[in-house]
Amino acid sequence: MDAAGDPLLEARGLRRSFGRREVLKGLDLAVGAGEVVGLLGPNGAGKTTAFRILMGFLAADAGEVRFLGEVIGRLPVHERARRGLGYLPQNPSVLAGLSVAGNVLVVLEERGFKDAKARVEEALERAGLAQLGKQTAGTLSGGERRRLEIARLLALGPRVALLDEPFAGVDPLAAEDLRGRISGMRAEGVAVLLTDHNVPETMRVCDRIHILVDGAVACSGTPEAIRGDPEARRLYLGTSAS
After folding, report:
1. pTM for the whole thing?
2. Helix orientation angle between 116-126 and 142-155, rounded to the nearest 10 degrees
């Protein structure tokens, strides 16, 4: 929540159908400043559709998205990003032929930041990549590439960060490092909403969890509460949350 206790990003009653299949059935969720919220659920539950609507890649059939208290349903993706809604995509997005620093610089120049070079240095420092700025991005390990994507996100100064499968394709050590980066965003007051199939890592880093099943939130609570919820285990977690 912000200083007034209001969420920075909020979805109210989101509905979306594809043909006769209703993928989202009145989804409600909110994330506040300095909070990490996880959206978990089986394949086909509606997580990806929800993220696409929040970012503006897809329109909802009904309901609304509020960012910093303003309804943003008609705002295009680039305008949402300009206002501070950041996005870490699931698919790899590193530009392999550019340097590490160049990867960050290019997104800043596209957005017209006049202090781009200073932002690059700061973002690489925050992501633990300060010593690799001149290295070609294509030579990085999987974990380093994920940190570079985090650096690009941080350089834009997001108020809210949507992380789509951040733990995908990284080894346990890289996942531990990534948890630290996400916790760092929380400490800086960024509101973080993430979705991932890596349940243990998601549970470790989140303050609250929503279990999405068949287009609606079936269970919500702290990670501890969700771990002990028989319904959450029956619907999705099984024994994976321990």
Report:
1. 0.89
2. 140
